[in-house]
Amino acid sequence: MAVKTGNARVWTIPDMIAKRKQRWEQGYPEKGIQPHDIAYDEVVVDAAVREILGDTHTPPNAALVAELNERPHLLIELAFTVVDKNRQTVPFFLNEAQKEFIRIYEEHGGGVPYLILKGRQLGFTTVITAIQYANAIKLRNFSGLTLADTAENVSAIFNDKARSMHQRLHPRLKPSEKYNSKRELYFDKLGSSWRTAVATADVGRSKTLNFVHLSEAAFFSCTLGDLQAGLLQACTADAVVIYESTANGFGEFKELWDSGTCINLFFAWWLAPEYRSTDYGELERAERGEGDAWLIERVRLLFEMGLDRRQVAWYCKKYAGYLDKSLIRQEYPCTPEEAFIASGDCVFDVEALTQQLLRVGALRPRVGEFVYRRIKTQIKDARGEVIGEEWELCDVEFVDKPGGLIRIHEEPLVKTDKQGHVTHRAPYVLGGDTAGTGEDYFTGKIVSNMTGRTAATVQIQRIDEDVYAEQMLCLARMYHDALIGIETNYSRQPMRLIAQEYRYPKIYMRERFDKTYNETAQVPGFETTPTTRPIIIAGLVRALREDPAMEPDVPTLKELLTFVKKENGRQEAVEGGHDDLVLALAIAHQIRGQQVTDWMAVEPERDPFYEKYFGGNRGGNMAYFDDGADVGSYDGGGNDYGSGGGLGDYGGWDDI
Q1: Residue-wise pLDDT tens digits, 431-449
Q2: Alpha-carbon gap, residue 147 to 150, rounded angstroms
Q3: Cα–Cα distance measured from residue 71 to residue 614, given in angstroms and rounded to the nearest whole number
């Protein structure tokens, strides 16, 4: 807020912006000015410019000049205008998506590239162009560049956005121009410039650049790799680089998103204030359960996410207008994953998985890992001679830890009698996939053998095999001595440690034909082969089709959405992706046949399980249900997955 010093107010640039917005929306009734009067807006801007730069009677305000030099983009809302979608000239006030981007831009500055994934027409090209233009007219030796996918889009950016801003800008804010060409503005006294070009492999190589905007980068005809090798090598160390685009399937833009080298920013379609409608016809049809089943479910989810009725009505109307209904996920996505989906490539049901991802995206599982003590015991024969050793884990405790390798979605379920004694425990299985290379992950999935739903997830990229085995063992113990089946393709060590050194009894056993003895042997662990892999994937496809809500883990859902059928027929993750969680989940479902499928009775007088392995502490690690009661909510924690002019007569800035 502006403050008073004596009889004069001390204004800041944000104060002036707030006043401009107020006069635009409310007018100035005392002077007969109506809201949305563009002529009066010019008066307001002129008064602001005089307050900052001074006039024949007052010197420049050094504090305000310094504020603009430090944050040139403040000029956007202070003095810029744009032509809106109704072809009307209006003040350039930022929408919610643009505000959020500028907040992040101010926080991080340059040096690390930004990657903006967005729905259509949220105004990012316009606001990034405005930022570059503001820098060009305020900063010395600024050099900016915007690349677009086509010559037509280059022209639209320069003429419809930048040039129109420049032409309507208050004359006292315009620096001296050396030239103003079809694709470049150059301000000679500042030595600053901004230009546009079509994206090609050799564009901009000879320039030193402070700011680069790659508009609709997912649709460039040249590769992003070529641009990074050429153009981006011309950028200064602190340059601002912004990749911005709607999605275009699983291309380089998706690879860049997944690389972790950029500040990834996703902006959903509903951030645009104009994406609202009072035409409720299509919405009301969906609410009555008529027509497209996907839209009916999507409407329910959008309301659950807090969107208002006009927003959902707009979405329904837009959806109805598409011949290819899948386009709405790319053009107006609700999640990044939905934006990148390549229709027809995914092995699993894209629609069901996308809806589930929206449903569970805001959930926060309990995250942590186990701490324990290892105890070694010697094994002796009848004569007392040491013939081996075994290990035991004691004082086991699950400790909450940000970034921990285990995510708990549902606590272990038990039944109790009226006195609170445990009478039954739910059965679980634990499937695991070991890291084949340094880029893969050690993973595990605890699955309820009564419902088939995931209760816990293990995921860690780099860990010693013995530590992974011990964490998996603790998790299996926590979930009522779950049946364990870990893949043995790359390493048998985790299964060997669990079965032999820790002598865990509930091990998945597979059959293997022994050619030496010409007989079938029982071998611990699961082996993924060209024969078994299609079988377990088909089983998982069927399980997810029957119950799309069975998987609550967001990283797993993302892997499922990028698990595709390649041209060679192999089913695996997209190039550069991972499928370790998918395989762990598939293994877990495959081994369920060796575990009981109903509540396991416990002797009523005692329950030795937690006393032995968890020190008798039942708090926090189990969900209790009265004997005979329904199992209740899915996750055990309340998340129910089932159910230009002069001043005229208006005086100085304070009177505007």
Answers
A1: 999 987 667 899 999 999 9
A2: 9
A3: 57
